[in-house]
């Protein structure tokens, strides 16, 4: 238990230092917001902070389909909310980026309740 407390303190320190350093970097804001959306309590932030990160990432790079998708899907996780927008952005990402195609395929499978074994995941190519 003591080890977990120490690890948590280190992660918090890294988060606080990285956020102060990269808070104007759209890529950082998107990925930390995405991660924090699943465990905002772990970073000692609120969902409003996650929303702010994702909004800012989209503002800094308004052409990024990934950031738009994340903002739309993460903040509106209920199936009936923004369904057409989520589908449209997902299709655009899948059609335009092979790495994202693989990542999105995994997310779709996980969201459908399918469990993937590590052996299956390791067989998925990450490059064209």
* Overall outline: globular
Uncertain segments of ≥5 residues (pLDDT<50)?
Answer: 113-121
Largest sheet: none
Secondary structure: helix percent: over 70%
Mean pLDDT: 77
Q: Could you state the order of secondary-structure elements as H and E?
A: HHHHHHH
How far apart, in Å, are the first and last alpha carbons? 43 Å
Q: Rg, please?
A: 16 Å
How many helix segments? Answer: 7
Our estimate of the beta-strand percent is under 5%
- How many β-strand runs? 0
- Based on secondary structure, the structural category is mainly alpha
Overall description:
The chain has 128 residues and is mainly α. The chain contains 7 helices and no strands. It is globular, with a radius of gyration of 16 Å. About 7% of the residues have low confidence.
Descriptive key words:
128 residues, globular, single chain, 7 helices, mainly alpha
In short:
This protein has 128 residues and is mainly α.
Which SSEs are present, and which pair or pack?
Elements: H1 2-22, H2 26-38, H3 47-60, H4 65-75, H5 83-96, H6 98-111, H7 118-123
Helix pairs in contact: 2-3, 3-4, 4-5, 5-6
């Amino acid at each position: 238990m003591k080890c977990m407390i120490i690890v948590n303190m280190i992660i918090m320190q890294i988060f606080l230092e990285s956020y102060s350093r990269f808070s104007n970097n759209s890529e950082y804001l998107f990925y930390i917001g995405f991660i924090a959306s699943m465990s905002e309590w772990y970073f000692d932030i609120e969902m409003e902070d996650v929303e702010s990160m994702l909004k800012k990432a989209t503002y800094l790079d308004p052409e990024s389909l990934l950031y738009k998708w994340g903002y739309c899907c993460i903040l509106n996780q209920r199936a009936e909310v923004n369904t057409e927008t989520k589908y449209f952005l997902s299709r655009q990402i899948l059609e335009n980026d092979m790495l994202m195609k693989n990542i999105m395929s995994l997310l779709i499978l996980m969201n459908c309740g399918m469990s993937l074994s590590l052996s299956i995941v390791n067989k998925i190519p990450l490059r064209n």
